[in-house]
Amino acid sequence: MQILNGLELSKTIKKEIKEEVDVMVQQGHRPPHLVAILVGDDGASMTYVNNKIRSCKECGYESTLIKKTSDTTEEELIWLIKGLNADNTVDGFIVQLPLPDHINPDEVLLAISPEKDVDGFTPHSVGLMTLGLPSYKPATPYGILKMLQRYNIETAGKRCVVVGRSNIVGKPIGIMLGQNKSIGNCTVTILNTHTPNIEKYTKEADILIVAVGRPKMIHGDMVKEGVIVFDVGITRVVDESAKGYHLEGDVDFDSVAPKASYITPVPGGVGPMTVTMLLYNTLLARKKSIRR
Question: How many CA atoms lie within 13 A of 169 on its CB side?
């Protein structure tokens, strides 16, 4: 069994990004600029955004955090987004989810310019990705692809089972791994909450990707020997430690790892790669703006 160490791989890729940014600046260009919009005071969201801002600094990016109160209206948020769309000093921006209940996330996504959609969530970006055309790929699935590539894991002809059909992870990773690409050509099955007897499918998986947010839902008797496991889920579970909680993935690591050929830990697996691929998309956006 080999650990797919997303934390170490993310450090390597961020170093590569920093080297490109240094050359860009030496050539007289400004560095990439990523803006993060945070609405409300959700603690987990603040942690995620701070991680992104810190990673920007590591890579030599400019970064801006725009914090809005939870009573910000949908109209005010969309007005802010339109301003960022028109700002030539901003290469990409993200709106941290979840948003307050009174704001429709679909309307927010539709307002983002495809040229600055470094999260890869707008219909335009998703459409290009689905067709296999150049696009900003959703960061978490992109991170999984990059891990498969950097660990030299063969995917062609493999049976891939995805547990979870979200627009952020499940659907896009299923599409990407099913495409005729160097990392792809899998036979993909996507499961959802209405799928009966999911172990029937998980036991057939050569590559198993789990992204549902249910701690330890996949255990050892639900997988076959040699399976490659990507655990995308991460849940805060209350305990009596000093922090008051610990993090658990969707996969019961202790029972699944002995049967796996490769497996991601939680934390330190897919999560760090998500932030890194967001930075990579922002670098691509900056390169495009320089060429224009």
Answer: 22
Secondary structure of 260-271 as H, E, C letters:
EEEECCCCCCHH
In sequence order, what E strands does 9-112 have?
Answer: 33-39, 62-68, 92-95
- Is 96 a residue of the active site? yes
Domains along the sequence of the chain with CATH: 28-113 (3.40.50.10860), 139-270 (3.40.50.720)
Angstrom distances, CA of residue 202 to CA of 135, 206, 219, 221, 227: 30, 9, 10, 10, 10
Per-residue pLDDT, 291:
86
* Residue 239 a catalytic site member: no
Give residue-wise pLDDT tens across range 219-251: 999 999 999 999 999 888 888 787 888 889 999
* Catalytic-residue membership of 119: yes
* Closest C-alpha to 54, from 287, 279, 243, 283: 279
Q: Which of 119, 206, 250, 252 is an active site residue?
A: 119
Whether the ω angle into residue 105 lies within 30 degrees of 0, i.e. cis, is no
Strands (E), the chain: 2-3, 33-39, 62-68, 92-95, 159-163, 187-191, 207-210, 227-231, 235-238, 245-248, 260-263
Q: What's the whole-number mean pLDDT along residues 162-191?
A: 97
| CA 163 to mean position of chain CA atoms | 16
Residues in contact with 229: Cβ distance below 8 Å, sequence separation at least 6, in sequence order: 208, 209, 210, 218, 223, 251, 256, 260, 262, 263, 264
What is the average pLDDT across 240-263? 91
Work out the percent of the chain whose per-residue pLDDT is above 70. Answer: 100
Q: Which two tokens stand for residue 190?
A: 């996507």
Please write the tens of the pLDDT for every residue from 42-61.
Answer: 777 888 898 999 999 999 99
- pTM: predicted TM-score of the whole model, two decimal places: 0.93
Candidates 14, 91, 96, 158; catalytic one: 96
E strand or H helix at 286: helix 270-291
Tokens representing 173? Answer: 């990773």
